[in-house]
Design a protein that fits this description.
Blueprint (H helix, E strand, L loop, with lengths): L2 E2 L2 H18 L6 E7 L3 H16 L3 E7 L5 H13 L5 E4 L9 H7 L11 H8 L8 H12 L8 E5 L6 H10 L3 E5 L6 H6 L3 E4 L17 E4 L3 E2 L5 E2 L4 H7 L2 E2 L6 H21 L7
Parallel strand pairs: 1-11, 2-3, 2-4, 5-6, 5-7, 7-8, 8-11
Antiparallel strand pairs: 9-10
The protein binds nicotinamide-adenine-dinucleotide (NAD).
The site of nicotinamide-adenine-dinucleotide has 24 residues, from helix 10.
Length: 286
């Protein structure tokens, strides 16, 4: 029976024990702006959670909500004004955006030093070179969860299923930088089962309920399930079949209560870090 990687408890500990006290020491509170365009139900839930936690951390927070008909130019104008706003240290544009808006153009417009989601090409480029500034919150949260549980990664065979810019790709880079040997799988991968069976560390970010059956899991493996899927009965489940996987894995994240709360905790940590950097007097040359 696997031990649980309890993201909910760890996120609370990091938020209350580290972020909140450090935020209180600053001359002005860290400022987080969250921009939501349209009325996607899941996005509304995520944005609500992020602003509630920011409130609890004592952050200055602003939620900017615009209708689905908002034009790309209007959204870019909002982002540019937040780039210039001295009270704002972190800008997050909630994805997905309505189809008529080009997501990449919007993400590219966020000032990289305020890009607390880590999606700007400057930040993903720095990560790929192993000198990260802001790391995308979900993969960063997975790594912190593994580190705090004392999971040894060096030399392990890791499999990441999913290659999105926001989860799979940065996750694979972080695991490689932690000295894992990483295989990235995706929708065109052949022989997925065989690859999963060989994984000491398995991270799944597909977005389909229970795609990975428990009997694929290598006994004792570490399983991080990033997926959040809402079933017809309203309950949430991951991309891994938890009930069977928990019997074989050594460690496993529950859904909910695993990666999700860690993502939000890392958003708070990144915003705090941005505020600390911004409030530090610039170093003087001699
Ligand atoms: P995405 O749709 O951008 O990417 C999905 C990836 O899965 C793609 O790379 C695709 O190639 C791969 N894939 C699809 N079908 C596959 C299959 N049958 N076999 C193997 N690979 C397959 O999704 P994303 O934004 O990376 O998110 C993935 C999941 O993680 C979603 O469920 C999302 O809700 C969840 N998510 C959770 C958090 C969190 O905080 N827990 C944060 C972000 C995303």
């Amino acid at each position: 029976m696997a031990q649980l990687l309890d993201g909910k408890t760890l996120a609370r500990r990091l938020n209350q024990g580290r972020v909140r006290p450090a935020a209180a020491e600053l001359s002005r509170p860290p400022g987080l702006a969250v921009v939501l365009v349209g009325s996607d139900a899941a996005s509304q839930v995520y944005v609500g959670k992020k602003t509630r936690v920011a409130e609890r951390m004592g952050f200055h927070h602003r939620q900017i909500t615009r209708p689905a008909e908002t034009t790309q130019d209007e959204l870019l104008a909002i982002v540019r004004s937040l780039n210039e706003d001295a009270a704002i240290d972190g800008i997050l544009v909630q994805l997905p955006l309505p189809k008529h808006i080009d997501e990449q153009t919007v993400l590219d417009t966020i000032e990289p030093t305020k890009d607390v989601d880590g999606f700007h090409p400057v930040n993903s480029g720095l990560l790929s070179q192993g000198r990260a500034r802001f790391v995308a919150c979900t993969p960063k949260g997975c790594m912190v969860l593994l580190r705090e549980a004392g999971v040894e990664l060096s030399g392990k065979d890791a499999v990441v299923i999913g290659r999105s810019n926001i989860v799979g790709r940065p996750m694979a880079q972080l695991l490689e930088q932690a000295n894992c040997t990483v295989t990235v799988c995706h929708s065109r991968t052949r022989g997925l089962e065989e690859k999963v069976r060989a994984a000491d560390v398995l991270v799944v970010a597909i977005g389909r309920p229970r795609q990975v059956p428990g009997d694929w899991i290598k006994p004792g493996a570490v399983v991080v399930d990033v997926g959040i899927n809402r079933l017809d009965d309203g309950t949430l489940c991951g991309d891994v079949d938890f009930e069977t996987a928990v019997e074989r894995a050594g460690w496993i994240t529950p859904v909910p209560g695993g990666v999700g709360p860690m993502t939000i905790a890392m958003l708070m940590a990144n915003t705090l870090e941005s505020a600390q950097r911004r409030q530090r007097p610039p170093s003087r040359g001699t």
